[in-house]
Amino acid sequence: MARVPAAVRNTMSRLRPTRRPRPAARVELVPPPANRWTRALGLVAVVLLGAWLGLLVVGNVRVPVGPMDTTMTLRPSLTGGTKINISPLGALHLDSHIAPVRLDVNVDQLDPDRSQALVDHPERLSGLQDEVARDVGHGALDLAVRSCVAVVAGATALGLAVYRRPGRALAAGGLALTLLAASGATAYATWNPKSVLEPRFSGLLSSAPSLVGDARSIVTEFDVYQRELARLVTNVTKLYDATSTLPAYRPDPTTIRVLHVSDIHLNPASWKIVASLVEQYEVDVIVDSGDTMDHGTSAENGFLDPIEDLGAPYVWVRGNHDSRITQRYLDDLKNVHVLDDGRAVSVAGLRFAGIGDPQFTPDRTNKAGAEATQELAGARLATALRDQRAAGTPVDVAVAHEPQAARQTDGEVPLVLAGHVHHQEMEVLPYGTRLRVEGSTGGSGLRAVEGKHPDPIEASILYLDRDTRRLQAWDAIRLGGLGLTTAEVSRHLVEENQPGAARSPSPSPTPSPRRSP
Predict the structure, then answer these.
(1) What is the DSSP letter of 193?
(2) Of 105-119, 191-205, 257-271, which one has max mean pLDDT?
(3) What is the rounded end-to-end Cα distance, in angstroms, of the chain?
(4) What is the pLDDT of residues 222-258, one digit of tens each?
(5) Tens digits of per-residue pLDDT, 377-431?
(6) How far apart are the C-alpha atoms of 107 and 68, rounded to whole Å?
(7) What was the pLDDT predicted at 19?
(8) SS3 letters for 13-70?
(9) What is the DSSP letter of 452?
């Protein structure tokens, strides 16, 4: 075989086409939806955290409101609302709006020059409301602008620190601004200017009446929100400086203030609480709806002696833990009015009638036929109320221990008071009578320690119009812990006194057959 020269072989190899490897097909990886949601949730978390940090750092405004220096702040919240902190007196809570942000107003200090000017020129108090309204309006506008800047800056800065990409950081800032705008729109849509009519106070018990204010002025002046807000600020002003000579709280003389207590159950601390409430609210009459004792023995009678020195007339009905021995002892005490068998008495401008509990069960046993016995007692009370009305001396307030008995008076009296169940209730019965059930003013007595947490001590201040003798509003008082210094006081208006509500008619007498036991 002929040998091919090496030079020819090299030339032929250069002329052959060279095979190049095919490039590998490019595979595009599409992120699964879960990853997109994770990134989105991460961005939202960064926005919320950055916005919150921004509000903490720069989202507050120092605002002079009347004679006070205050700090207004927006805070993240699940329920919204407004909180006015008056350290060390306590705080006022207003259900002003529903949104994921809450308005906090901290009272920092009372300016001595401005407060002294009010002392020297009391006529300026009349113009304080307009001044407060202007101050609050300017402060709210300044707070809104500052909060926008704080939220956007905080979210953008944290987005830049986390993602290190300007585009993502700007997206975080834009989303923060959108969320703040949505929160503002929600707050505006749910804004309730009448929330100042029913404030909730928590703090020193002695401060509650002055901060919450008198029910009469609230009922008659709910048409202007700014005036009510100014009234709250004025009350705070009067209390904040304990050494000033600003005028003290004085209830409206056109209201009758009734302190409703019940189920004291031999708690000696209750008398100090009752005496404090009588003094702070200038109570006209105390109504006790029973179970003052625990076993009703004569050995317990000495527990009742402080009633004579409480500072107000004491109206009482027998509970199922109170015996006839207890009732006779109370009947002999001065300033005590015992109600039983539908008997009516006039005290502090109101006419009361009541009936004692038909059962005596100090051992907490349930006797057979108890329900029918309570209904029979309530029917006897209802009959007595009808007789009083027919005689031209209608009863304003009826009292029974068991709510079941109290419900039998529906249609015969505007207001009936009861206890027994150890928690507060307010109910309008079918024929128009309003039933108020009081909690335990003794914190359930010795049985309070049977559970994990002691039961709260509860009482109510009822505001009745002196002319119509109808309930206008009430303050639900709840004491916790030691019970003597701290409290939560919630203001409530009856439905017909709510803004824009029609006046409800008087309770309509029910047919006689309904009352037959």
Answers:
(1) G
(2) 257-271
(3) 138
(4) 333 444 555 555 555 554 443 333 344 556 788 999 9
(5) 999 999 999 999 999 999 999 999 999 999 999 999 999 999 999 999 999 999 9
(6) 7
(7) 57
(8) HHHCCCCCCCCCCCCCCCCCHHHHHHHHHHHHHHHHHHHHHHHHHHCEEEEEECCEEE
(9) S
The lowest-confidence range among 262-266, 270-274, 512-516 is 512-516
What phi and psi values does residue 342 have, to the nearest 5 degrees? 80, 10
Taking the C-alpha atoms of residue 50 and residue 154, their distance in angstroms, rounded to an integer, is: 5
| 489 token code pair | 């006081």
Sign of CA dihedral 218, 223, 229, 234: negative
Distance CA 155, CA 44 (A): 10
Q: Cα separations (Å) of 398 from 356, 359, 373, 419, 432?
A: 11, 19, 18, 12, 14
- CA 54/CA 49 separation, integer angstroms: 9
Buried b (16+ CB within 10 A) or exposed e, 452-471: eebbbbbbbbbbbbeeebbb
E-only strand ranges, 77-232: 82-86, 90-94, 101-110, 200-204
What pLDDT is stored for residue 120 in this prediction? Answer: 63
Q: Which of 244, 247, 246, 257 is nearest to 214 (CA)?
A: 257
Top mean-pLDDT range of 58-62, 192-196, 331-335: 331-335
Q: Would you list the DSSP string of 97-120?
A: --SSEEEEEEEEEE-HHHHHHHHH
Angle, CA of 267, 268 and 273, to the nearest 5°: 95
| 448 within 8 A of 480, measured Cβ to Cβ | no
Spatial separation of the C-alpha atoms in residues 236 and 179, rounded to whole Å: 34
Give the residue from 279, 281, 273, 339 showing the smallest Cα distance to 306: 273
| Identity at 50, one-letter amino acid code | G
pLDDT above 90 covers what percent of the chain?
34
Domains of the chain and any CATH numbers: 36-207 (no CATH), 216-362+370-496 (3.60.21.10)
Please provide residue 490's backbone torsions phi and psi, each rounded to the nearest 5 degrees.
-115, 125
- Beta carbons within 8 Å of 330's beta carbon, 6+ residues apart: 304, 307, 316, 336, 338
Total length of the chain: 517
Closest Cα partner for 396 from 305, 470, 452?
A: 470
- Identify which has the larger pLDDT, 512 or 416: 416
| Whole-number Å distance between alpha carbons of 213 and 112 | 23
pTM of this prediction? 0.71
- Residue 426's Cβ-count burial label (10 Å; 0-12, 13-18, 19+) is middle
Whether residue 356 has pLDDT greater than 70: yes
User: Where would I find the H helices in 252-347?
Assistant: 269-281, 324-331
